[in-house]
Amino acid sequence: MGLSKTFSASDVSVHSTFASRYIRDKPAKYKMPENSTPKEVAYQVISDELMLDGKPRLNLASFVTTWMEPECDKLIMDSMNKNYVDMDEYPVTTELQNRCVNMIADLFNAPHKESDEAATGTGTVGSSEAIMLAGLAFKRKWQNKRKAEGKPYDKPNIVTGANVQVCWEKFARYFEVELKEVKVTEDYYVMDPVKAVELVDENTICVAAILGSTYNGEFEDVKLLNDLLLEKNKQTGWDTPIHVDAASGGFIAPFLYPELEWDFRLPLVKSINVSGHKYGLVYAGVGWIIWRSKEDLPEDLIFHINYLGADQPTFTLNFSKGSSQIIAQYYQLIRQGFEGYRNIMENCHNNAMVLKAGLEKTERFKILSKDIGVPVVAFSLKDRSHYDEYMVSEHLRRFGWIVPAYSMPEDAKHVALLRVVIREDFSRTLAERLVLDITHVLNELDKLPLSSVSPNGGNDQVCINGGICNGNMNTLVAKRKISDIDLEEEDFIPKLAKSA
Question: Do residues 23 and 40 touch, judged by C-beta distance below 8 A?
Answer without folding.
Answer: no
